[in-house]
Amino acid sequence: ADARCSLTLLVHSGRPACLPAPFRSFGEGIWLLRSPPKLRGESVQATQERMHSGPFRCECGQVHADTYDGPSNDLLPYIDTNGVSALNESETGACKRVFKPYSERNDAATFVESEDDDPQMLIHIPFTCPVHIRALMMIGDGGSATPREVRAFVNHEALDFSDALDMPPVQQWEIASSDPTGVLEYPTFFSRFQNVSRLSLLIVSNHGADATRIHYIGLKGTGTDARREAVKNAVYELKPLPETNALKDHMPANVN
């Protein structure tokens, strides 16, 4: 291989519905991303700037703002952070703080933790417009309090623990106990995560601790920008029917 090219190997849990242009498939569930090669006489900085096109997260950790419909798009701008809520969190509202910029993903000062002696949590994530979700990122405390089994549910306005534990999830993942650099992504079954207005994540268990702690939750995909708006200045007209009106006996027979 050309030593000037950057190669990234992604292992996917299943064949994607479509394969973005920068990727090439090498067998079931394996993608190879080849970054643009360094041009002759081009500085390293110029190469990085040329590679940084699109609202996707590249190796520098930044999210760029041009148009690129790739698998690494950051959905943070589409998350209604104020509307995020969680059941069984030890501090009300702490769940909002784990949805933060990628560059702050390893900040241990902000986290959400479950109640003592109960590792389960149910986190509801509303979006400002329907989104398509390609991958989940979740960073715990790096030890036994890190989530282990996580189940996802899509577009359920009212979901509690009893419902979430009884119904089949859209997908579930097993989260690694340690992710020192915070780069592990858990791909979705993309066709099942289309037009998502609300995502619910059930933390079923952790790696052995009495309580679960999460420092960061990230979602990758694309937004539709189709924002829902309330109906304004609607005018309704009512036409009384003679047969249902109190004056029906006084109306001519030919009135409809």
| Percent range of helical residues | under 10%
The overall strand count is: 11
N to C succession of SSEs: EEEHEEEEHEEEE
Describe the largest sheet: 8 strands, antiparallel
What number is the mean pLDDT?
76
Structural class designation: mainly beta
What are the low-pLDDT stretches, counting only 5+ consecutive residues below 50? 1-40, 46-71
DSSP strand (E) fraction? 25-35%
* Coarse shape: globular
Report how far the terminal alpha carbons are from each other.
82 Å
Notes on the protein architecture:
The chain has helices spanning 44-51, 161-166, and strands spanning 7-11, 23-25, 30-34, 85-87, 112-113, 121-140, 147-154, 171-174, 186-187, 196-206, 213-223. The radius of gyration is 25 Å and the shape is globular. With 256 residues, it is mainly β. The N and C termini lie far apart (82 Å). Helices cover 5% and strands 29% of the residues. The longest helix has 8 residues, at 44-51. Strands 4, 5, 6, 7, 8, 9, 10 and 11 form an eight-stranded antiparallel β-sheet that branches.
Task: Give the key terms.
256 residues; mainly beta; 3-stranded antiparallel β-sheet; 2 helices; 5% helix; 29% strand; disordered N terminus
Task: Give the secondary structure arrangement, pairings included.
Blueprint lengths: L6 E5 L11 E3 L4 E5 L9 H8 L33 E3 L24 E2 L7 E20 L6 E8 L6 H6 L4 E4 L11 E2 L8 E11 L6 E11 L33
Antiparallel strand pairs: 1-3, 2-3, 4-6, 5-11, 6-9, 6-10, 6-11, 7-8, 7-10
